[in-house]
């Protein structure tokens, strides 16, 4: 950016002066990740995030800040990702704003996930839980003595001993609730921990007042047991979150911590963040590829199961592109870095997995809105219960306060704010096991709603690699000449000719040139020869010789016989089973292709597709999608080519193979890394299961509140019972979400081979049409 403005120069100078005077600010600026479009991304760890309402509060506070393009909060990882529109924008206001609203933040990076995993909050929760459980057991023993008939001084002594145990226990074990509530109140807002903290303090204060005044009833056992059960629910929630994000952490562990640079014949170790495209790196046997790279020298077996899902070793050869995270098994390799660590294959995967939660769809937004309404609603209900019972009981503030405490406890919406993200993250983990990357959490919900699936042909339903089916090229000199011409082109059809014709004598090829859209021509033995489009080859071939053909390839010497080459396009082995599975699920498959009508019809007939369209331009495909959507259809697009990218973006949900072009992968919601179309039916089946679980979670939450809140307001629920009910509801809802991680009979073995085993293929179709003419 040109810095020609004096005001700009002054602003930069002031910023640099502040940075030099404040090392922490300079460190904060260095934490940003620059993008190719000039934007800068910052990732902050925000431990205070713990519910859907927190996400909304953080995002609403950061989005209006100057220079902020987007701000997304992540519940599972407790992180906030902020994108600034230019490098000159200071990230300091972001940290200051987060601190002001009660969410202190520190900059982190994806590479720090291992450290974050080691510092799990569950350890601190477990210690607090153990203290609360031990104290509750001892106070319960004292309470049994009181309940057994202890009177006067003995009863008061037991109450005071219980107070000496309960007050420090609640002060220590309840910190997780008190800190969160205090931060929220200091920022002028409410969160779910405010009613929880209020309930604990009121129960403890009421019991302490009773003990000091010689009262007959004290509920130290209830206050401490309440803390214990609240911590049980919070600890299990935390453990479930950690289980849900284990896929992201597992991917992060595949990243190398550094790289060995080869420079001037010497080797030096550099941190991973310092690797830049063009650097020459040496990857030892047993090491992982630090970034996406191209092999320059060396021989080794590679484990590419992360990319393809196949455990069979792949031989590394010079010129091969190898993705970050691939394991180098047997020998050292010298490679050229093609990307930095922020744009590598592993970084893309981790971003996709993280998006499984941060990209929230309609269900999550509903849950967030409900969670934001819950906190004020809880206080209103508790105040109403207190006033009602205060009036109804003739001024008995003790009973009124007792009822209000139960209402505060029983209405905690923890389960509501947690259940949907857990479903999405576990769904992303299941998909990843099956070789499918989900780029957007809302895509799982949209996928469950589809009723129409549009397929591209070449590279999607077919392998995209033509092969020679038949030819009348004469063996000997003509065959050798055709093969020599084909070797001068990188076109897939030319490669099919090279692989299909037998090797023969080496011929002298002069003045070879490739004519775009036509083919290859050269002088062989002093005669002009052509291989390519039949009409173009016919210009030099003898008229009337050879059968007229309009498809495939043709070959001829100048004035010689025109020979023809028929190509065929192989269907993917699981194309038929995938179409059958989708039809059994009630979906309508349709073929959209830019190819000519004849090959498109042959593919449609081989797969028994009743709906197909040929000669489709990108605009035609988008028009078809819009027409279906206008008729009420929910459309999924599956394609791989550059011409499919617009339609992938236009569809309600989209999927592309890993072999797709960059634009196609970026436009698709799902990318399947294994060479199997079964990924389409498997993802749809999983999405339907996820939708069912989300609906069950909402039903459980509504049912729980419909029963518990009226009982609490009626004075029929004690604070202890309320704590147990609230914790049980949270555990129940999250446990229900975790059912998605259990492979059912239909999905057994999907991680290894996709869902083909669960969905009987059309064996007769596959056997009848293994390939179709191109």
List the helices and strands and how they pair.
Elements: H1 6-21, H2 23-30, E1 33-34, E2 40-45, H3 52-62, E3 68-74, E4 79-84, H4 92-100, E5 106-108, H5 113-118, H6 121-147, H7 152-173, H8 175-186, H9 193-212, H10 220-244, H11 246-253, E6 258-263, E7 266-271, E8 280-283, E9 293-297, E10 300-303, H12 305-308, E11 314-316, E12 321-322, E13 327-328, E14 333-337, H13 345-358, H14 362-392, H15 397-410, H16 414-433, E15 436-438, H17 441-448, E16 452-455, H18 457-461, E17 462-471, H19 477-486, H20 492-500, E18 509-515, E19 519-524, E20 527-532, H21 534-537, E21 553-557, E22 563-571, H22 575-584, E23 588-592, H23 597-606, E24 612-613, H24 618-630, E25 635-638, H25 645-650, E26 653-657, H26 662-667, E27 670-672, H27 678-713, H28 719-737, H29 750-753, H30 763-768, E28 771-773
Parallel strand pairs: 16-23, 16-25, 23-24, 25-26, 26-27
Antiparallel strand pairs: 1-2, 2-4, 2-5, 3-4, 6-7, 6-8, 8-14, 9-12, 9-14, 10-11, 10-13, 15-27, 17-22, 18-19, 19-20, 20-21, 21-22, 22-28
Helix pairs in contact: 1-2, 3-14, 6-7, 6-10, 7-9, 7-10, 8-9, 9-10, 9-15, 10-16, 10-28, 11-13, 13-16, 14-15, 14-16, 15-27, 15-28, 16-27, 16-28, 17-27, 19-20, 22-27, 27-28
Q: Give the class from helix and strand content and strand pairing.
A: alpha+beta
- Quote the average pLDDT: 77
> If helices are DSSP runs of H or I spanning 4 or more residues, what is the number of helices?
30
What is the number of E strands? 28
Based on CA inertia axes, which overall geometry fits?
A: elongated
Largest sheet: 7 strands, mixed
Oligomer: single chain
Portion of residues within helices = 40-55%
| Portion in beta strands | 15-25%
User: Uncertain spans, ≥5 residues at pLDDT below 50?
Assistant: 1-23, 110-119, 243-247, 356-364, 745-774
Distance separating the two termini: 50 Å
Strand order of the largest sheet: 15-27-26-25-16-23-24
Evaluate the radius of gyration.
33 Å
């Amino acid at each position: 950016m040109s810095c020609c403005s004096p005001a700009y120069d002054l602003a930069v100078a002031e910023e640099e002066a502040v940075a030099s005077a404040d090392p922490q600010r300079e460190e904060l600026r260095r934490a940003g990740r620059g993008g190719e479009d000039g934007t800068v991304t910052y990732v902050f760890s925000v431990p205070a995030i713990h519910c859907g309402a927190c996400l909304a509060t953080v995002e609403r506070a950061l989005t209006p800040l100057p220079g902020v393009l987007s701000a997304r909060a992540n519940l599972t990882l407790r992180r906030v990702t902020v994108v600034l529109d230019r490098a000159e924008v200071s990230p300091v206001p972001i940290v200051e704003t987060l601190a002001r609203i009660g969410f202190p933040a520190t900059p982190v990076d994806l590479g720090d996930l291992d450290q974050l995993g080691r510092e799990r909050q569950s350890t601190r929760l477990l210690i607090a839980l153990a203290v609360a459980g031990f104290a509750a057991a001892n106070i319960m023993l004292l309470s049994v003595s009181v309940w057994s008939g202890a009177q006067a001084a003995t009863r008061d002594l037991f109450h005071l001993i219980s107070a000496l145990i309960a007050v420090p226990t609640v002060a220590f074990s309840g910190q997780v609730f008190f800190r969160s509530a205090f931060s929220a109140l200091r920022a002028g807002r409410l969160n779910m921990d405010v009613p929880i903290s209020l309930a604990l303090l009121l129960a403890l204060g009421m019991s302490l007042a009773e003990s000091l005044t010689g009262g007959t009833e004290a509920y130290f056992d209830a206050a401490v047991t309440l803390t214990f059960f609240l911590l049980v629910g919070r600890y299990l929630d935390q453990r479930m979150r950690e289980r849900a994000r284990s896929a992201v952490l597992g991917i992060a562990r595949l990243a190398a911590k550094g790289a060995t640079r080869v420079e001037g014949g010497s080797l030096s170790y550099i941190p991973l963040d310092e690797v830049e495209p063009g650097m020459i790196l040496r990857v030892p046997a047993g090491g992982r590829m630090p970034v996406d790279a191209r092999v320059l020298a060396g021989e080794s077996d590679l484990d590419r199961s992360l990319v393809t899902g196949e455990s069979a070793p792949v031989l590394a050869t010079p010129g091969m592109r190898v993705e970050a995270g691939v394991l180098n098994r047997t020998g050292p390799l010298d490679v050229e870095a093609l990307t930095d660590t922020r744009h590598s294959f592993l970084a893309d995967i981790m971003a996709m997995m993280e998006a499984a939660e941060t990209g929230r769809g309609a269900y999550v937004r509903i849950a967030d809105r409900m969670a934001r309404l819950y906190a004020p609603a809880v206080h209103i209900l508790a105040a109403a219960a207190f006033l009602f019972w205060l009036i109804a009981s003739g001024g008995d503030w003790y009973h009124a306060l007792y009822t209000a405490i139960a209402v505060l406890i029983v209405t905690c919406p923890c389960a509501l704010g947690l259940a949907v993200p857990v479903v999405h993250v576990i769904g992303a983990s299941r998909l990843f096991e099956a070789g499918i990357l989900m780029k957007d959490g809302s895509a799982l919900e949209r996928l469950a709603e589809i009723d129409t699936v549009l397929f591209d042909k070449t590279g999607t339903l077919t392998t995209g690699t033509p092969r020679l089916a038949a030819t009348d090229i004469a063996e000997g000199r003509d065959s050798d000449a055709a093969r020599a011409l084909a070797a001068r082109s990188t076109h897939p059809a030319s490669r099919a000719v090279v692989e299909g014709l037998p090797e023969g004598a080496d011929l002298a090829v002069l003045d070879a040139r490739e004519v775009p859209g036509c083919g290859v021509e050269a002088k062989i033995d002093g005669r002009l020869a052509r291989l390519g489009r039949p009409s173009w080859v016919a210009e030099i071939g003898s008229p009337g010789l050879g059968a007229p053909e309009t498809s495939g390839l043709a070959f001829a010497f100048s004035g010689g016989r025109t020979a023809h080459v028929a190509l065929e396009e192989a269907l993917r082995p699981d194309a038929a089973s995938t179409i059958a599975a989708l039809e059994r699920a009630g979906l309508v498959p349709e073929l959209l292709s830019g190819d000519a009508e004849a090959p498109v019809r042959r593919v449609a007939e081989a797969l028994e597709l009743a709906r197909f369209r040929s000669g489709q331009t990108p605009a035609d495909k988008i028009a078809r999608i819009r027409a279906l959507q206008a008729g009420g259809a929910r459309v999924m697009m599956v394609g791989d080519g550059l011409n499919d990218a617009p339609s992938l973006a236009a569809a309600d949900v989209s999927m592309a193979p890993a072999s797709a072009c960059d634009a196609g992968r970026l436009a698709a919601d799902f990318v399947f890394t294994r060479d199997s179309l079964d990924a389409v039916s498997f993802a749809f089946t999983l999405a339907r299961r996820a939708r069912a679980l989300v609906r069950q979670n909402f039903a459980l939450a509504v049912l729980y509140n419909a029963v518990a809140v009226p009982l609490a307001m009626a004075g029929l629920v004690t604070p202890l019972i309320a704590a147990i009910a609230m914790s049980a509801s949270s555990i129940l809802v999250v446990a229900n979400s975790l059912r998605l991680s259990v492979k059912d009979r239909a999905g057994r073995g999907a991680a290894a081979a996709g869902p083909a085993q669960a969905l009987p293929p059309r064996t007769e179709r596959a056997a009848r049409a293994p390939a179709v003419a191109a």
